[in-house]
Amino acid sequence: MHISPLAHRIAATALVLSLLAIPVEAKDTIVPIDTGADRLEVLLMQGKPTAVVGLMEAQALAVVDLDSQQVKAKIPLGFEPIVTRVDAAQNRAYVAGLNSNSIAVVDLNKNEVIQTIDLSAGVFDLDLDPARKLLVATHPKAGQISVVRLDGSAKEKFLVRSLPMPNGPLACAIDQETGNIWISLANNEGLGLVLVNPDNGELLARLRSGSNPEDLALDTKHNRAVLLNSGSQDLSIVPLSLGGTFRSVGLDWKPTRMVLSADGKFAYVTSRDSDRIQIVDLDAGRTIGNQKVGSAPTGVARLGSGLVVVEAGAKSLRWITNPLATNAATANSTGSTSSTLKTEVSISKLAPTRKDIGAVAGQVTDLAGNAVAKGALTVEGRKVPILPDGSFLLSQLPPGKYLVDVEVPGFPKFTARVQARGGYVATNDIQLPPRSDWATKKFTVNQSVEGENIGILADAPQYSELFARSLMPLMDENLTKKRKVLVLNGPLGPAPEFARFASAVEGLSVIDRNNRYTQEVEKLKALGRTLGLRYIVFTQVVHSRGYDQKGNPFVNSVLKIFVPLDIPNIPNFTPNQLRAQGAVLVLDLQKTKVGEKANFLKVQGQDDVGGDPLYEESADGLFRLEIRNMAQEVVKQWQQSNPFTS
Amino acid sequence: MATKQPIHKLTMHKLTGMLLSLGIVAFSATVAQAEPARLVGQVKDVTGKPLQATVQLGEQAVTTDSQGIYELNNLTQGRWQVQVKSAGYAPVNHKVWLVEAMTTPLDVALEKAVVPRELTQVGMVGVGALPRTDKLAQRMAGEMARLGAFPEVGPLALLQPPLLTPILKKLNRPLYEVLDKDIMDKLSQGKADEQRVREFFSYTGLKALAVARVDFLNQSENPQETEVKSRSRVELWEFNKDNRLTVRVLAEAGRNEKQDRLLNQDEAELLYQVQVTQMAGEIGKRWEGQNSPWIAYFPKGTTLPVPGSTKEVTGEVVPPK
Fold first, then answer.
1. Which pLDDT belongs to residue B141?
2. Which of residues 400-459 of A touch B (CB under 8 A)?
3. Chain A residue whose CA is closest to B104
4. Touching check for A350 and chain B: CB below 8 Å?
5. Which of A201, A265, A413, B309 could form a cystine bridge with A163, CB 3.0-4.6 A?
6. pLDDT range class, residue B83, cuts 50, 70, 90
7. pLDDT over threshold 80, residue A577
8. pLDDT in the model for residue A317
9. Which residues from chain A sit within 8 angstroms of residue B101, using beta carbons?
C-alpha cells in the first residue's frame, strides 16, 4: 500500500497528538540498558511507548520498547551520543555527541545510520522542527551553533550554516511560532538566553538567566522559557512577552536535566549527584517535593502522565508514575496508593517555602581565617550587626546579587558581593582585606608579646625549609625576647595560619639587584599585621655538588626573595665536595622602608668526603647535617648582635 | 554534645524589633504563622565519595542515604550547631542559620580521623628524602607488591603515601624524618626518637613495617660515558616484646650499568626505574617459598602466592570488520 508522504506525516502527527491527549497508563518499570546515557526521546512507535536513547559507553543508539521492557535495536554510531531528536513522521533520529563533529541520521525503520551531517565541532544539544525542516545544534567549545536545513528526501541534501555566538551556547529550542531559535549561553553574566534569527544569525533579544543554563524548555501556553542553571543551582522562569516578571526558583540539589509537565505548570528536574527528581511548581515558584530514583539520573522525558528517566549510574531506564500524581494521591488517601510502587521510590513532601525571598548567612574573617567579633554590614540601606562569633544573617533579600558594605574596626572599609536564592539561606563567608592598623590583642598568635611575633619563611623547598626548621628550636627566650616563633612553611605545606597567604607570597621579589627593599615589602607588612608578626625571617639555602653545575633549580625561581648569590663555581670538583651557602634575612616589619639596604647574614657550609663517589641520599644526609650546623652558626651570630631588639 | 536550644534564638519579638528598628515594616504580614525551617545537604569524604553519616541538630538526628544526602525538616529558626559524624572520620561541627520557611543547604566534607588503631597490618612503604629518591622508593615498594615479593594478602598492605598525610600532619614531620634512614645508627647510639615511630605505627594500625629505600648515583668520570648506579634496601621496622624499636635489613640489591654516552636526567630516570623493577624482582626470587620474611605473619602451614604469578593482563586489538 502506498501512502503519500503528506498522509504519512498527518498520521504521525495524529499519533504524536494522541500521545499527548490520551493518558498512557503509568507504570513503574525498569529496563536495563547496560551503559550510561544522557538525554532521551520518548514517543509512540506502532502504538507502543518507545524510548530512543543514545548509549554512551556502547557508542550506539538504542530503541527501547517500554511496554515489553526490551531493547529492540542497538544501532552502532562510533561516537558517544548525548542527545537525540526524533522526527516521528519520517521515522528518523538525529543523534550527536560532544566528541564527534557530526550528526548521525538514523533510519528507525531499517535501524541503520543512513547519513552523516558534518559540522565544525562537537554537539551539546539538538532541536528539531520537522514542520520547518529545521535542525539546530550547539557547539559550546567552538562558541557556535549550526543551523541545518533538511529537504526531507530519502537521500537528503543538507544546507548547514554555522553562526557565531557571544559565549559558549549550551541548550537550544526552536520557537514554534516564529522559527527563531532560543539559545542558552555559558559564562553569561546574568544574560544567558538569546533569541537568534536562523537565517542570518542576528541576535533578536537577550534575556536574563542564572549561571550555566544547561537545559532549556519552552512553555508556549504561558509564553515563558524555563532554564535549568547548574551553576547557580536554580531554575529561571523567563517571560517571553512584555510585562512578565523574571523569577528564579532555588533547588535543593544541583540540577542535571529537566522536562515540563504537559500543562507547563510543573518542572521535573533530575539531579545526577543526589539520585533525585525535584518537582517544581512553576506558578508558585517553589520546589514542592522530591522523589528518590535509581543511581545518577540524567535525561528525563514525559510519557503520558508518567516520566521516563535515564539512570546513568544504574545503567537503566525507569518509567515511573507521575511523581506529582503520586504526591497528590498519597496526600489524599491514607497511604494505600503507595503499595502500587514496587520500588524504593519515595517522595518527601516539603514544607511550604517562602518564594522569592532569600537570606544570606556567613562569617566575617580576617585573612588568617580568624572570626572578627564586631562590626556591621550594610545591604540595601539596612545595617546588620556582626555577632560575637563573627557570623551574620542578611534576611529578606529577593533573589539576586547584592553589594554589602563591610565595616569592621581596624580594617579598611570594603564592599563584598553576595548572592541570594529564593527560599534558601545561602552561605557567603566574607574575608576582610589586610588590616589597616597594627594588630590588637584579638589577632595575635600568642599571648606573650602582642603583635610582636616572629615568622620564619623559607625560600625554595628542600634545604631552605630545613634551615628554617633547624633555626626555630635554637631561638631561645633571650634571643626572641619571649616572642613566639612560627615556621610559616614546611615540608608538609604551609602552616594553617599562613595557608591563605602562601600563593600571595610566591614569586615575591622583596629585594632588588642592589640589595634594596622593593615595594613588595608593603605586602609583607600587610601579612605581618594580619598574623600578628613583627619580624619575618627569610631563609635560603643554595647547595651544589661537584658534578652538578646547575645547582638547585628552585633557587631564585620559586620565591625571588634574594639577589642571586655568588656560589663558588669550581670547575673540576671532586665528587664529594659538598658546598652549601645559607642566607638569613631578618625583616623588621615596623621599621623597614622601601629603598633601604637589606643586611643579610650569610653562612657557608663545606664538607669534603673522600673515597667512592657519594650516592644521592648519602650526600643528602651530609647536606642536612651541614645545614643544622649552619643554623647553629646563625644563632651564635644573632646572640652577639640581636636582630630582634627594637 | 547536642545543643538543645539554638545558640541565638531569633524570637519573633526580637526579630520584629530588630527589623522595625531597621525600618522594615512589610515583614509583619509574614510573621503571623511561623513555618518550619529545613536543613539539607550532602556528606562526602575529602575525595568526594559519599559517606554514610549521622547529622544531628538539637534533638533531631538523621542518617544520610547511599548518596550521602540528608534532609532535616520541621526545624526551629535561629542559629544552631550541627554535628556530622561518620565511623572512622573526624566529627565536624558547623554553625548554621535557620530561617522560617527557608531551606539552609549544608554540604560537609569529612577527613579521616587520626586515632590510635588496632595494630593488625604489616605495611610496606617506599620513602626517600629527595623527591627523586622518594619516587623511586615508592616505585620499589609498588613493584615488590606487583611482582609478588610482598603479596598483598592477609595482613600485608601497601601504604599509599598521600593517605598518610593527615597522620604526618599530626606528627608534624615528613615521612622521611619519621622513617629516618639513619635509624639503625641512632638506635645503637640510643638517639632514636622511638616514640614518634610508635605513634606512627599506632595511627596507621601497623604491627610491622617494611621500608623500601632506593639510592642512586649518576657519575661521569669520562665525558664519553655515564655510570648509572642504584642500590636498594628493604628494612623491617618492628617493636619487640619490650616495646623497643628494632630495625633490621631484610634485603639489599644493587645495579650498575655503563652507558656509552652522556645521559640527560630523563633518560637516566628511565634507567633507574628499570633497575628498580629488576631489583624488586631479584628480591622476590630470593624470598620464594619458605624464605619469605612474611610467612611469620601468617598461621603455620600457609603458602604465600608464588612470586611472578600475579596479575597478568593480556590485551588484543581487533580491527573493525
1. 95
2. 423-427
3. A425
4. yes
5. A201
6. very high
7. no
8. 92
9. 351-354, 423
The position carrying cell 619490650 is B242
- Give A292's contacts in chain B (Cβ within 8 Å): 65
In percent, the amount of chain B with pLDDT more than 70 equals 83
Q: B117: pLDDT confidence band, cut at 50, 70 and 90? A: confident
> In whole angstroms, what is the distance from residue A392 CA to residue A207 CA?
33
Distances (CA, A) of A276 to A26, A51, A252, A258, A482: 19, 21, 10, 12, 58
Residue of chain A with shortest Cα separation from B171 = A492
The amino acid sitting at B137 is: A
Beta-carbon separation of B104 and A620 below 8 A: no
Q: Answer yes or no: do A395 and B99 touch at CB < 8 A.
A: yes
Q: For residue A30, with 0-12 CB atoms within 10 Å meaning exposed, 13-18 middle and 19 or more buried, which class applies?
A: middle
Q: Please list, residue by residue across A327-337, b when 16 or more beta carbons sit within 10 angstroms of its beta carbon and e when fewer do.
A: bebbeeeeeeb
Stretch A606-615: mean pLDDT, rounded? 76
Q: How close A515 comes to chain B (CA, Å)?
A: 31
What DSSP assignment string belongs to B22-90? TT--TTHHHHSSPPPEEEEEEEEETTS-B---EEEETTEEEE--TTSEEEEEEEPPEEEEEEEE-TTB-
Pair A372, A364: CB distance under 8 Å: yes
Residue of A nearest to B77 (CA): A425
Chain B residues 269-308 within an 8 A CB cutoff of chain A = none
d(CA A268, CA B230): 63
Residue A226 has pLDDT above 80, yes or no: yes
Test B69 with A276 for CB contact under 8 angstroms. yes
Give me the interface pTM, i.e. the ipTM.
Answer: 0.71
Rounded mean pLDDT of A568-597? 73
Closest chain A C-alpha to B291 CA, distance in angstroms: 29
Compute the C-alpha angle A426/A428/A434, nearest 5°: 170
Residue B16 confidence class, pLDDT cut points 50, 70, 90 = very low
User: How many beta carbons lie within 10 A of that of residue A284, not counting itself?
Assistant: 14
Q: What is the pLDDT of residues A297-346, one digit of tens each?
A: 999 999 887 899 999 988 999 988 766 554 443 333 333 333 333 333 34
Return the number of CB contacts < 8 Å for A and B. Answer: 127
Q: Would you call B113 an interface residue with chain A, using a CB distance cutoff of 8 Å?
A: no
Is any Cβ of chain B less than 8 angstroms from the Cβ of A250?
Answer: yes
Q: What DSSP assignment string belongs to A527-596? A: HHHHHTEEEEEEEEEEEEETTBTT--TTTTTS-TTSPPP-----TT--TTEEEEEEEEEEEETTT--TTP
Mutate to test the interface with A, among B8, B73, B97 (most CBs of A within 10 A): B97
The dihedral through the CA atoms of B245, B248, B253, B254 has a sign that is positive
